[in-house]
Write a structure and sequence with these properties.
4-stranded antiparallel sheet; 4 strands
Amino acid sequence: DLSGAGCGCNAALYLVSMKQNTKPSSCHDYYCDANNVCGVSCAEIDIQEANQYAWHSTLHTSHDHGGKGAGFGGGQGWNGPRDFTSEE
């Protein structure tokens, strides 16, 4: 239920390949993702990045930070996070 997730909120569910990461990250664990959040890159599957107005899924390799995404909302030519109003 995304009815409480308004503009500016990203209710995210994603998978990363931590088992394949053998290097401790700057977060003092083995966390990794496609955007190097803790200093280590790995493949990432964004199953859901959504709120009540938009929903997207994205596949990332460890070296493709933008990934290949698809979804609903945010307008034509969507290329990453976007600010938009409920009217849009």
